[in-house]
Amino acid sequence: MNDIMQDYIQFSMYHAHNSSLLRRFLVPLTILGKLSEMGMQQCDAMLKNQELMVTLRDAAFDVVLLDPMVVCGDLVADMLGVPLVLSLRFSVGSTLERHCGQASMPASFVPASPLPYTDRMTFGERLINMLTYMGTSVLSQLYWRRTLDSLYTEIKGQS
C-alpha cells in the first residue's frame, strides 16, 4: 500500500505537470485500480468475518467516519446500523467529492484534478475541464458497477 501511495505522490508532485493530458489520467487511474483491488480484498475479508462484525456491533459505535477513498465504509456503516460521515479528499476528476460527497463543483469555475487550472479558465480550459468531469464520471460509474456492485449485492443480498 505504501509503495502504491508513493508512486502516486511521485507522479503527482514531480511528473504530472510535464505529462500529456492522457498520461495525467492513465497513471492515476492505474494507481487507483491497484488501490481499489487491495481495498476490495480488505472489504471482502472484513465484511465476511462474522466475529469481527459481531465485535463491531457490540462496541456500539455511534457513527462511521469515512474517507471515500476507502472502499465499502458505507457498507460497514449500513451493516452496523449507524450513520456515515464522509471526509472528503482530492480524487481524480474530483469524482468522489462530486458523487460520494455531493460537493457542488461547477465545471465552469472549479477545476478538476489533476488539471493545473485556476478559477480563471479560458474557454478552451473550461471545455477541457467539462470533458474531464464528464469522462471521469462515466469511467467511475462503469468501474463501480463492474467492481463494487457485485460485492454489495453479495453482502446485502439485494441488487
UniProtKB/TrEMBL annotation:
Assigned keywords, A-Z: Glycosyltransferase, Transferase
Signal peptide interval: none
Coiled coil: none
One Pfam match: UDPGT
InterPro entries assigned: UDP-glycosyltransferase (IPR050271), UDP_glucos_trans (IPR002213)
Superkingdom of this protein's organism: Eukaryota
Family: Belongs to the UDP-glycosyltransferase family.
Protein name (database record): Uncharacterized protein
Protein's organism: Ilyodon furcidens
